[in-house]
């Protein structure tokens, strides 16, 4: 059985569509970064890949297809989650991270 892979955007990036001069971060990726930092023993069981902002995101396309480049994304044998609520639920179920409080 292979390990799950978590795709995140690089911590800071420029968006050419917004002029390319301002620097941004992804709020959902930062939420996940916080979980990884807070629970390193759980994060150690996941392969983490940080990818640049521009599309196509080749590593993500290779893993789950061109139509699913939204990040963050958790990928496992036979499935993936790349919508934040589903991803948080998958991290809790698959890796023992605490659940998000409603």
Order of helices and strands: EEEHHEHEEH
How are the strands of the largest sheet arranged?
4-1-5-6
Rg, nearest Å:
14 Å
Shape designation: globular
Distance between the termini: 32 Å
Number of helices: 4
Strand content: 15-25%
Uncertain runs: none
Tally of individual domains: 1
From the helix content, strand content and strand pairing, which structural class follows? alpha+beta
Helix content: 25-40%
Largest sheet: 4 strands, mixed
Strand segment count: 6
- The average pLDDT value, as a whole number, equals 96
Organism: Sphingomonas gei
Pfam family, one: DUF3088
Protein name: DUF3088 family protein
Overview of this protein structure:
By secondary structure, the protein is α+β, with helices and mostly antiparallel strands. Helix content is 34%, strand content 21%. The chain has helices at residues 27-38, 40-43, 58-64, 84-95, and strands spanning 5-9, 13-14, 23-24, 47-51, 73-76, 79-81. The strands form 2 sheets. It has a 4-stranded mixed sheet, sandwiched between helices. A two-stranded antiparallel sheet has the order 2-3. A hairpin with an 8-residue loop joins β2 (13-14) and β3 (23-24). The radius of gyration is 14 Å and the shape is globular. It starts with a strand and ends in a 7-residue tail after the last helix.
């Amino acid at each position: 059985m292979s390990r799950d892979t978590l795709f995140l955007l690089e911590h800071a990036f420029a968006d050419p569509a917004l002029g390319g001069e301002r620097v941004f971060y992804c709020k959902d990726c930062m939420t996940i970064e916080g979980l990884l930092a807070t629970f390193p023993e759980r994060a150690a069981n996941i392969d983490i890949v940080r990818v640049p902002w521009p599309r196509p995101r080749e590593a993500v396309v290779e893993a789950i297809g061109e139509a699913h480049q939204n990040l963050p994304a958790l990928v496992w044998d036979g499935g993936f989650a790349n919508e934040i609520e589903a991803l948080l639920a998958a991290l809790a179920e698959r890796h023992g991270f605490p659940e998000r409080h409603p």
